[in-house]
UniProtKB/TrEMBL annotation:
<dbReference type="InterPro" id="IPR054383">
    <property type="entry name" value="PspAB-like"/>
</dbReference>
<dbReference type="Pfam" id="PF22742">
    <property type="entry name" value="PspAB"/>
</dbReference>
<protein>
    <submittedName>
        <fullName>Uncharacterized protein</fullName>
    </submittedName>
</protein>
């Protein structure tokens, strides 16, 4: 950062900090106590796919690493692609085991990052629902190192419950680094489990 950058309003980008994901279990306690939202046991990582053998090999290695848990009673990781062309790796754990779910999501992110594919990482989600079956995801923005709530309205269509998102933002300020720039709260339509 130089003087000219400061003068022109340029800022140094925030470095991704995957360890922020480990704040999700305490955020889950806050969500349940304050708003009645409980984890669904579904978490996912979204990334831009890259063509080529190296990326395919990394994806297979991540799949094999996490599928090794299946032999010990764990749950397999699923790969999918959404209608926008983004790739997803989805982990499923028992709803009450958010710690294992966060570990799986962290492992996927870490494996992609450590093999040089960090720039392809877009976001990670952990899904929640309440007694009225309203869906909610806490979204970690890889390139910003922060979280935001995403609450699609039930019943189909691409509509968001903005009031609920702002309510959740206010609740989680002590548990997670919440993204303050609301223009960066992008919708994640078609995310697995929502």
């Amino acid at each position: 950062m130089g003087f000219l950058d400061a003068l022109l309003g340029r800022t140094k980008p925030v470095k991704p900090d995957l360890d922020q994901l480990f704040g999700l279990p305490s955020a889950a306690i806050t969500l349940e106590a304050a708003a009645g939202f409980k984890p669904t046991g579904v978490g996912s990582v979204c990334f831009a796919s890259v063509e080529g053998g190296a990326f395919a090999q990394v994806q297979q290695d991540v799949q094999a690493l996490l599928d090794a848990d299946v032999e010990r009673g764990g749950i397999a990781i699923e790969s999918s692609r959404d209608s926008y062309g983004y790739s997803w790796m989805t982990a499923r754990q028992p709803a009450e085991d958010i710690v294992s779910l966060v570990n799986d999501v962290h492992a996927i992110n870490s494996a992609l990052e450590s093999t040089g594919f960090g720039p392809q990482l877009l976001c990670s989600l952990v899904n929640f629902t309440d007694a009225q079956q309203r869906p909610l995801a806490l979204v970690y923005i890889y390139k910003r190192g922060s979280f935001y709530p995403f609450a699609p309205k039930p019943g189909g269509g691409e509509r968001r419950d903005n009031a609920l998102e702002l309510e959740i933002k206010a609740m989680l300020g002590n548990d997670l680094r919440v993204e303050q720039d609301l223009t960066r709260w992008f919708p994640v339509w078609g995310a697995p489990g929502l």
